[in-house]
Design a protein that fits this description.
The protein has 310 residues and is mainly alpha-helical. The protein has one domain. It contains ten helices and seven strands.
């Protein structure tokens, strides 16, 4: 009988020890996981631009703004969502893709070949426009997307939500007349909220494609023209090439000669983006310029016109 009691006590003691060890292990694992999460948090540096030209202060979304955005998110979608069936190792997955045809139609209708924007026309088509924004909000990029599909998506996000920002404050003479235009957190993608700064600096620029600077539009005269065509995975390479060449050949934005170049301030603000693998800014320009620029060419920058691009 005594032996039996001893065995029972021994069993209970071992069980309690095992339970305590397991709890300690779980607690330690949780601690390690928290530490890893904090360590992997990435601080992304934003290009410093003259504060007299760009507002980079953070703003907080008000309760009313959040309510308004939630209402917009519930708008009826006018654009179809394409669903492709793809096979994974364990189950059939549904791959959601954004059809940008509604945005393409709006751009064709309200943006000229020169990039002039009819904001009043956009306001008249507000239901369709908001439905497209809602579509972007509901379908964030997926891991299964290609780089070009993801890049085209974010470029459309940047330009479309910039138009929304102007419409929300229209009439206005300049985007700079709006309080904190680039730091206003009004872009919902999935469960997250973004600023225009987030989309450009923390997402698009990190995709290592310098030609995006001739496709992203800040609603100003000296910005690249708003392309009156939606960006798509299929046509992205050709469109970026077209827009880069067009921007460089536009004498209102760049004056290029063999021994002298007077460039858009975009090349000053984001100069590092055009240099890679030992290449210089001149090397980049010569890939797309009709004029062969000397490596010793004198360089200066043009004044930037922030008037609204309408």
């Amino acid at each position: 009988m005594n032996n039996l009691k001893y065995i029972v006590f021994l069993y209970i003691g071992m069980s309690l020890y095992s339970c305590g060890t397991t709890k300690a292990t779980i607690k330690e694992d949780a601690k390690e996981e928290t530490t890893v999460t904090e360590t992997n948090t990435e601080d992304v540096e934003i290009i410093e631009i003259d504060e007299t030209e760009l507002d980079v202060e953070e703003t907080v979304l008000s309760e009313q703004e959040i309510e308004d955005m939630n209402k917009a998110s519930k708008a009826v979608k006018a654009t179809k969502i394409e669903l492709d069936e793809s096979t994974s190792t364990s189950t059939n997955a549904i791959r959601a893709r954004v059809n940008h045809s509604a945005w393409n139609t709006l751009l064709q209708k309200h943006v000229s070949e020169q990039g002039n924007v009819n904001y009043k026309g956009f306001k008249e088509d507000k239901a369709t426009f908001y439905a497209y924004l809602d579509l972007l909000s509901e379908i964030p990029p997926q891991d299964s997307w290609s780089k070009n599909e993801t890049l085209a998506y974010w470029m459309n996000v940047y330009n479309a939500f910039t138009v929304k920002l102007i419409l929300d404050n229209y009439p206005t003479k300049s985007i700079k007349d709006i309080s904190g235009p680039w730091s206003h957190r009004f872009i919902r993608i999935g469960e997250k909220w973004y600023t225009l700064n987030d989309v450009e600096h923390r997402i698009i620029r990190k995709m290592d494609e310098p030609r995006i600077h001739f496709a992203l539009v800040c609603a100003a005269v000296s910005c690249p023209r708003l392309y009156n065509k939606a960006f798509t995975e299929k046509d992205l390479e050709a469109d970026l090439d077209l827009l880069t060449r067009g921007f460089l050949s536009d004498t209102s934005k760049n004056e290029i000669n063999e021994n002298s170049i007077k460039l858009s301030r975009i090349f000053k603000w984001y100069g590092g983006d055009f240099k890679s693998k030992g290449k210089t800014l001149i090397d980049f320009l010569n890939q797309y310029s009709d004029v062969k620029i000397s490596a010793k060419a004198k360089k200066s920058y043009k004044d930037y016109n922030w008037s609204l691009n309408e």
